[in-house]
Design brief:
The complex is a heterodimer of chains A (291) and B (367).
Chain A (H helix, E strand, L loop, with lengths): L1 H8 L5 H38 L3 H6 L11 H8 L1 H34 L5 H10 L5 H15 L5 H25 L3 H9 L4 H12 L1 H17 L2 H5 L8 H8 L7 H21 L4 H5 L5
Helix pairs in contact in A: 1-2, 2-14, 4-5, 4-14, 5-8, 5-11, 5-13, 8-11, 11-14
Chain B lengths: L2 E10 L2 E11 L4 E6 L5 H9 L6 E6 L2 E2 L10 E4 L11 H12 L3 H14 L15 H14 L4 E5 L7 H15 L5 E6 L2 H7 L2 E6 L2 E7 H6 L4 H6 L6 E7 L3 E4 L4 E3 L10 E7 L4 E2 L8 E12 L3 E8 L2 E8 L9 E6 L5 E3 L5 E3 L13
Parallel strand pairs in B: 3-8, 3-9, 6-7, 7-8
Antiparallel strand pairs in B: 1-2, 1-4, 4-5, 9-10, 11-12, 11-14, 12-13, 14-20, 15-19, 16-17, 16-19, 17-18, 20-21
Classes of the chains: A mainly alpha (291), B alpha+beta (367).
Chain lengths: 291, 367
């Protein structure tokens, strides 16, 4: 559509000049759209960063595009007050724990689904995904009851295990896609060459799917990091995650807007970092490794 | 290693993929497994390798039953149709990997890898990763890895099929030299009759899971047991025409009389099927023995030095091969010439009744 409208505008120009003009116009138009798009996307994030550097008084007094007197006080509070920073530590604890558990469990499972045919394999593979279809709230009560009985309540392990409910199936699906992209003949050649299964898996197979493992770890990390309901219900004091800390401080002494904004900024940083590492493979991950 | 297959059968979900195949492969022998796509070549190789387990039958290695033993317990190496290397290892490490697993010392590994790489002319590429190699070089690496461990059994599953024409020719010539003077049992699966003829050794003709024939390559080529074996071991497939065998010749269904050659004398009279390879069917009269039959031109395939003329004679499609370039308008009725001395005679059920006496003396290119 864009192309045709250029052609109409530039009928008087010789063909080469017309083409050049068209390409310049196309680039600039595309740039404008992209800039607008990114601006809209980044506006809320900018606003949060903006707020986190202001005092509460300034936030409530009116609209300012930049902090009038920038302050790091909000961040200092978070890094010095244990009730704040322990929230981050707890979150990171169960997220890392969950990622490790999910990968450890999903790697062999995905290998089995990718390489072997067994009774009901396809049904089981699909059933894994149905676990993601039920809302987590459904599982809340049994989890709460079970963890209380086993003394797991209010530990990072409780949340990590609960998050396996949706992270393990996802990890199996993504890894299976990546593994099926590796020809089965490589496995067979390795066995003929005298590799034992564990050695083959660790030295030949895992390096081949390392992008898949990275993407899987990213997805586990993200889902576990942003999940609030299970994380909040299965913890009380000892393992309280940052998201819960944020929601629970809202009404403590009115609204501490600046502090909340600073906490929010610190919450998106780990995600952004992880995305940076797997940026080239995320699309393939969203397609469950099947591209 | 002497390998014996004893009535190997493989069924998958009721469908028979390999049907009672029995074979004896001597140490140091070069065996070609010739068959069309889906004939069961790969399935049979996988059974021999121990990658899959046969439904019934036994596999004996020097008299020891190894039927149930997995691939790790067999003394076997395999080269696949796809170029299979370990992508994260360099060429050197790829070739060295079977030796490393055997626990050989580093000096000996280096010596053997270098020697094998030199044989396959990839010694300049040892530091590269497989992804930095061309297809031919990747396949050379895979072959080197299979050769270096000096396994008792070496299986090659259409190793040249994914290479371009020139490379295929080149590597095919080299393979013949590489496998000479080895104690290894080599089994080489291919769809191309020409490959079987060039590589020599023995040839087994596989058709729909059954081994039709096994023996020295030229013998199989010269005396295919039945029409299927004849069709598979000819490129383009052998031409067949039904006729009636009489005392002094073969009467074709359109009334043409084919006089008998020496090898056809004494056959019982009755219906028969004659087979002629494309290179013995021409559009140019070659001698006064030749018999002409009229046929309608369907297509003339020119491949530079020769032309394949597809014709229809009395409803039967035939392919004639002629040296040089021959153009014929489609639909034209032309005579095609048989040489009675070059004709195979088969029974109506497909069994071979008589084959031309002498073996073809110019092998290359005639398949």
């Amino acid at each position: 559509m864009t192309l045709r409208s250029h052609a109409d505008d530039a009928v008087a120009l010789p063909p080469r000049a017309r083409a050049r003009a068209a390409s310049r116009l196309r680039v600039s138009r595309r740039t404008v759209v992209l800039v607008l798009y990114i601006l809209f996307l980044l506006l809320p994030i900018y606003w949060m960063v903006n707020m986190s550097l202001k005092t509460n008084v300034e936030i409530l007094s009116g609209l300012t595009l930049f902090p009038r007197d920038p302050t790091l006080q909000n961040y200092i509070t978070i890094f010095t007050d244990p009730s704040w920073y322990s929230g981050y530590i707890n979150s990171i604890k169960y997220v890392v724990l969950n990622t490790v558990i999910s990968l450890t469990v999903a790697l062999p499972a995905a290998y089995a689904f990718s390489r072997y045919r067994f009774l009901g394999d396809k049904h089981m593979f699909f059933w894994l995904l149905t676990n993601k279809m039920a809302p987590p709230a459904v599982f809340l009560l049994p989890f709460f009851q079970l963890y209380s009985t086993f003394g797991l309540f209010d530990t990072p392990l409780a949340v990590a295990l609960a998050h396996c409910l949706f992270n393990v199936p996802l990890a199996v699906w993504i890894l299976e896609g990546f593994m099926s992209g590796v020809p089965r003949e490589i496995d067979e050649t390795a066995y003929m060459d005298g590799y034992s299964f564990p050695r083959f898996f660790a030295t030949i197979f895992v390096p081949l799917i390392r992008a898949g493992i990275g993407v899987t770890a990213f997805f586990c990390f993200m889902f576990s990091w942003v999940e609030l309901l299970l994380a909040r219900t299965l913890t009380a004091v000892e393992a309280k995650p940052i998201a819960a800390t944020m929601t629970r401080t809202v009404s403590a002494a009115g609204m501490d807007w600046g502090l909340l904004a600073a906490a929010g900024v610190l919450t998106i940083i780990p995600g952004a970092l992880v995305i940076w590492f797997v940026r080239n493979y995320i699309a393939k991950g969203f397609a469950l490794g099947r591209v | 290693m002497t390998l014996r297959l004893d009535a190997i059968t493989k069924t998958v979900g009721g469908a028979v993929h390999i049907d009672r195949v029995s074979l004896d492969l001597a140490p140091g022998s070069f065996n070609v497994l010739l068959g069309r796509t889906l004939a069961g070549k790969t399935t049979l190789l996988r059974l021999i390798a121990g990658l899959d387990r046969p439904t019934s039958g036994r596999i004996l290695d020097d008299g020891r039953d190894v039927t149930g033993r997995g691939v790790a317990g067999r003394d076997v190496a395999m080269v696949y149709q796809q170029f299979i290397n370990y992508p994260s290892f360099t060429v050197f490490e790829n070739i060295a990997s079977p030796l490393r697993r055997k626990g050989m010392d580093a000096v000996e590994i280096e010596r053997r890898v270098k020697r094998t790489a030199a044989m396959l002319r990839i010694d300049g590429l040892l530091d590269r990763l497989p992804s930095q190699l061309s297809g031919g070089q990747q396949q050379r690496t895979a072959i080197a890895r299979a050769l270096v461990k000096e396994a008792g059994l070496l299986l090659l599953d259409e190793p040249l099929v994914n290479l371009d024409y020139k490379l295929r020719e080149e590597l095919r010539e080299e393979l013949r030299v590489l496998f000479a003077e080895r104690r290894t049992v080599v089994v080489y699966a291919t769809t191309e009759p020409a490959e079987a003829l060039i590589l020599g050794g023995n040839t087994g003709v596989l058709h729909e899971g059954r081994l039709l024939q096994f023996g020295p390559t030229l013998q199989v080529y010269g005396r295919p047991v039945d029409t299927d074996a004849g069709a598979i071991f000819s490129d383009p497939p052998m031409n067949f025409i039904d006729g009636i065998l009489t005392d002094d010749g073969v009467a074709l269904s359109d009334g043409t009389h084919l006089p008998l050659a020496a090898h056809e004398r004494g056959l019982p009279a009755g219906p028969c099927r004659i087979g002629v390879r494309a290179n013995h069917l021409g559009v140019v009269r070659r001698g006064d023995q030749s018999v002409a039959v009229p046929a309608r031109v369907e297509l003339a395939e020119i491949s530079g030095s020769e032309t394949f003329i597809h014709v229809v004679h009395n409803g039967v499609p035939l392919v004639a091969r002629e040296e040089g370039i021959h153009t014929h308008p489609i639909g034209e009725i032309i005579p095609v010439y048989f040489d009675p001395a070059r004709v195979f005679v088969f029974a109506p059920d497909g069994r071979l009744l008589a084959a031309p006496r002498s073996l073809p003396n110019r092998l290359k290119g005639v398949a």
